[in-house]
Amino acid sequence: MNNFSTFRKVYYGLLIDANKKHPTVKITQTGTLLFRWPFSKFSDFIQLLNLSLSSDLLPNQDVIDVIIHVARNPHGRHLAWKYFRDKWDILNSRYGEALFINSKLINGVTEYLTTEAELNELKHFVRNNGGGTISSFQRALEIVEANVRWHSLFEEQFFQWLRKSLTS
Which among 59, 90, 127, 167 counts the fewest CB atoms within 10 Å? Predict the structure, then answer.
């Protein structure tokens, strides 16, 4: 059984138990599973993201958490960002009225963007899709601009320090 098949079996098991109101599992425990699950294959991330929007078993809040947790994984960050942009119309129609959730999603997907190219993609995306969520996107732009600035100023120094520390 591959990594994703195991995840789906465990995750759905937790959801089904939680939905049946069994005292052994709380719905919030599924977030812990998402955070700790060691996905490493690109196809696992794609399946997980696609499952998040198409499953009736996933509560709306968990859909957001799935996307954010993929974005927090170094191997899934770019995929989550692309998925967010590709599925924006669906996500915004589903969560656009819930300002907190929409803000959480926008910040969660963009907070680890660190390159000038990603910043430009975000700016382009906001220009074309920002609409009523412009304040959430403004905060995201500020964070990504700070990330890009930090990387341009300190990335090389950090890696020099790290190499020096490892050889000492």
Answer: 167
What tokens appear for 94 in the block? 């589903």
pLDDT grade, residue 86 (50/70/90)?
very high
Q: Kindly provide the b/e burial profile for residues 36-61, where b requires at least 16 CB atoms within 10 angstroms of the residue's own CB.
A: ebebeeeebbebbbebbeebeebeeb
Answer yes or no: are the C-beta atoms of 72 and 84 closer than 8 Å.
no
Q: Please tell me the predicted confidence (pLDDT) of residue 23.
A: 39
SS (H, E, C) the chain: CCHHHHHHHHHHHHHHHHHCCCCCCCCCHHHHHHHHCCCCCHHHHHHHHHHHHHCCCCCHHHHHHHHHHHHHCCCCHHHHHHHHHHCHHHHHHHHCCCHHHHHHHHHHHHCCCCCHHHHHHHHHHHHHHCHHHHHHHHHHHHHHHHHHHHHHHHHHHHHHHHHHHHHC
Structural domains of the chain in order of their starting residue, each with its CATH number? 3-167 (1.25.50.20)
Q: Which two tokens stand for residue 143?
A: 């964070």
Quick one: CA dihedral 103, 37, 84, 82, positive or negative? Answer: positive
